TrEMBL record:
Lineage, opening ranks: Bacteria, Bacillati, Actinomycetota, Actinomycetes, Propionibacteriales
Protein's recorded name: Chromosome partitioning protein
Short name of one Pfam family: AAA_31
Feature: compositional bias, Pro residues: 22-36
SUPFAM superfamilies: P-loop containing nucleoside triphosphate hydrolases
Region (Disordered): 1-88
Family: Belongs to the ParA family.
Leader peptide range in chain numbering: none
InterPro entries: AAA_dom, DNA_Partitioning_ATPase, P-loop_NTPase
Function of the molecule: May play a role in septum formation.
Annotated AAA domain residues: 95-271
Compositionally biased spans, kind Polar residues: 1-21
Organism annotation: Kribbella sandramycini
Length: 349
């Protein structure tokens, strides 16, 4: 299967069609009726990894009126009443979760920073690993990549460097950062020579697993050796998916890579969830894309979606998470809701 033949997507997303538009139709250009939907689930659906834990019937109980109709969430499913995470009772061992999608600009870095900050707010110790030579997660937390003396590159490539020497505290309580810069691009090439090259990140993280409750890895937009290292070091994956027309393209390639890593390198690896990002509920196509993702991935799609807002680009400029930049914004609430869902599926602390 290649990226253009993800079952069920080829008919609807063949690239030659126009986006369904939210604009009112003009008399000169009437909008064609939507094409017949092909709702066949993916061939490899049964073989695909299941989430770590399903939401219980209790979690799915209606929010207010137990007998009334359940409110539908943005994914078109009844919105569960997500449990508030209890305060942590201990620290570690960490759940290691990779934010992974080889498609660029889908919200991996934004999700790493803001989910990390939202989990840190619950009192859990969180480490963010910038595993992208672009250094976006570092920049998003106010760290200038070119000023770094040590980065994740040194940790991977120099045996005498320990994680503690590279990790920095951030301005957010309970949130630490393992920063990266362009040096990391050299690791992609240099690691090829290493013995057990796919396990390099796992090996260097091992000593700090007891020190954190959650470690989030911000992957680069590629399925190269660095990303394979991230998947090998993780027990969960969150797949941010932009709610737009071409979002499903490439998902087959991603699930294929995940399957290979599970078979050959890391049988513990599971998809924690798929996260709709940059969602604009006013447009038909955003809702259709989300609908399609739910058809294909069922309960692995998070109930929480992240809506499109200019607040996120603003947070990058100020170098802090949305939870501190605009703590009472709906964008911050969405990431706090996501934190509840992630902690319900991957209990930590
Ligand atoms: N919900 C959102 N609403 C509006 N803009 C967003 C949203 N989420 C992310 N963005 C913006 O979209 C751009 C891409 O986001 P981000 O850097 O998180 O994606 P990415 O998947 O990490 O990209 P890359 O593949 O290049 O690493 C950024 O400018 C970010 O501020
Ligand atoms: Mg990024």
């Amino acid at each position: 299967m290649n990226e253009s033949t993800f079952p069920g997507t080829e008919q609807q997303f063949n690239g030659s069609e126009q986006y369904p538009s939210s604009e009112p139709p003009t008399p000169a250009q009437p909008i064609a009726p939507p094409p017949q939907r092909n709702l066949t689930p993916p061939e490899n659906y049964a073989a695909m990894p299941r989430p770590t834990a399903k939401l219980t019937a209790e979690d799915l109980a209606p929010v207010s009126d137990p007998s009334g109709p359940r409110k539908l969430g943005p994914t078109g499913r009844p919105m569960p009443d997500l449990p508030e995470p209890l305060p942590p009772t201990k620290t570690g061992p960490a759940q290691v979760i990779a934010m992974c999608n080889q498609k660029g600009g889908v919200g991996k870095t934004t999700t790493t920073i803001n989910l990390g900050a939202a989990i840190a707010e619950t009192g859990r110790k969180v480490l963010l690993i910038d595993f992208d030579p672009q250094g976006s997660a570092s920049i998003g937390l106010g760290v200038q990549p070119h000023d770094l003396e040590l980065s994740v590159y040194n940790l991977l490539m120099q045996r005498d460097i320990t994680a503690g020497e590279v990790i920095q505290a951030t301005n957010v309580p309970n949130l630490d950062l393992l920063p990266a810069n362009i040096d990391l691009s050299a690791a992609e090439v240099q690691l090829v020579q290493e013995v057990a090259r796919e396990y390099t990140l796992q090996r260097v993280l091992e000593p700090i697993i007891p020190n954190y409750d959650v470690i989030l890895i911000d992957c680069a937009p590629s399925l190269g050796l660095l990303t394979v290292n991230a998947l090998t070091a993780s027990n969960g994956i969150v797949v941010p998916l932009e709610c737009e027309f071409f979002a499903l393209r490439g998902l087959a390639m991603l699930t294929d890579t995940i399957g290979k890593v599970q078979d050959r390198l890391n049988p513990k690896l599971e998809i924690v969830g798929i996260l709709g990002t940059m969602f604009d509920g006013r447009t038909t196509h955003a809702r259709e894309v989300l609908d399609r993702v739910v058809q294909a991935f069922d309960e692995r799609v998070f109930h929480t979606v992240i809506r499109r807002t200019v607040k996120f680009p603003e947070t990058t400029v100020v170098g802090e998470p949305i939870t501190t930049y605009a703590p009472s914004s709906s964008a911050a609430t969405q990431y706090r809701d996501l934190a509840k869902e992630v902690l319900a599926r991957c209990p930590a602390g």
